[in-house]
């Protein structure tokens, strides 16, 4: 009886470890009523204590859209200090759907989750405090159909 109970517990534990392996930071912010106002900046302060010395990290923007998102792409203003001690701003373009209007990523129940690569194999310092600010740079104000947005920092794929 004991081993029959132990197996599901071990399976659940192994599953939870596999989902978060190598993640140093993974946070989402919900967008109020699924409408992102252009002047609204979403901030992600990151404590570097979870970083491992000598590792390179992949940084991605995680986005969840609903069926009411009217575009195939997304323009974002990204301000960060990953590559310098000073904040640097870039305007980046991401594809949300293919040329035929099929959503990229995965989803269910009218929501679609997509991981958008921002940096690959980035050496991050364990003594630094990083921050990322995201702001939508589309013509629509407010931008409908954005349910939540986040940042994921994980050990680079070649590093595992």
Topology:
Elements: H1 2-20, E1 23-30, E2 35-36, E3 42-47, E4 56-66, E5 73-80, E6 88-95, E7 106-108, E8 111-123, E9 129-136, E10 143-144, E11 146-155
Antiparallel strand pairs: 1-11, 2-10, 3-9, 4-8, 4-11, 5-6, 5-9, 7-8
Describe the 3D structure.
The chain is mainly beta and 160 residues long. Helix content is 12%, strand content 49%. The chain is built from 1 helix and 11 strands. The strands form 3 sheets. A 5-stranded antiparallel β-sheet has the order 1-11-4-8-7, with no helix packed on it. The chain has a 4-stranded antiparallel β-sheet with strand order 3-9-5-6, with no helix packed on it. A two-stranded antiparallel ribbon has the order 2-10. It is globular, with a radius of gyration of 18 Å.
Strand tally: 11
Order of helical and strand elements: HEEEEEEEEEEE
- Share of helical residues: 10-25%
Low-confidence stretches: 5-19
Helix vs. strand class: mainly beta
Order of strands across the main sheet: 1-11-4-8-7
What's the Cα radius of gyration? 18 Å
Rounded mean pLDDT score: 87
Give the number of helices: 1
Largest sheet: 5 strands, antiparallel
How would you describe the shape? globular
How large is the share of residues in beta strands? over 45%
Q: Distance between the terminal alpha carbons, to the nearest Å?
A: 37 Å
